[in-house]
Amino acid sequence: MISKLNNKELDQKIKSLARAENKLLAIVIEHIKEADRRKLYLDFNYANLYDYLVKECGYPGGSAQRRIDAARLLAIEPKLKAKIESGEINLSQTTLLQKAFREKSQTVTPEQKRSLVAKICDRTVAESQVIISKELDLKVKATTKVTHQKDESVRIEITLTKEEWESLQKARDLASNATQSNDLPKLIKYLSEKFIKQKEGSTATVAVKKQVLQRDQCCQYKDPYTQRLCGSRWNLHIDHIKPKWAGGADDIENLRVLCQKHNHHIYRQQAGIKSISSRTPVGAEVPLK
Ligand SMILES: [Zn+2]
Questions:
Q1: Which of 17, 45, 257, 259 is the most buried (most CB within 10 A)?
Q2: How far is the CA of 219 from the centre of ligand 1 (A)?
């Protein structure tokens, strides 16, 4: 029973399973390589190996593509099998390699490919990316691309210098407690909101905020349909009933306690109203500390 294992045993077990998983993966790759060589997919009426792996073997698309990338690299560098088995190289790395080779189309020699396999052993994915792009002299992309998608989300592709990236990572580490995540979009949201709050936030004094908190005690958000009070006591914020941008004052009658969720909810509603009327960003409220 897994739940009966002590921590040391559990750790050992996971490590030995991970080793077994790598071994099995290396064998899978070897077989896919052979299937590719034989064009086995034709026997099953598929136009290509990818379709065979997805539709016949049940691999999710990304997993199938990573296995094909590794199998085709193995055809060029037989030592790859042992490296996958030992965990020196993983499929994220082999896929990086194959993508880079595709980008350079026919110009990379088999010797160069083998030498790159050796160079990225035991490196992280980020390190491998740097090694590969230096070695193959891949183009540095610097333009920013912003794409608006059908759900109104926005996809941004940006290039940061090494220094910019390092400071962003440092910010991410420092904010990880507050954001509960390593996710970049969450970090950007957190930093922007913090900045906006700082620029436009409440100027109510600490004493006034304390009074409001003592009066309200919990989230005062009322469901517009049932009129039920939220009542949460978790992560409370002070909110301006009439927003500051609309001339709302910092006095106790215009202030109320909201939980984080409802603070954001109200903020979004008000931001929506305001962006129609004036098209400038609106400040959220200052959290109680
Ligand atoms: Zn609430």
A1: 257
A2: 5
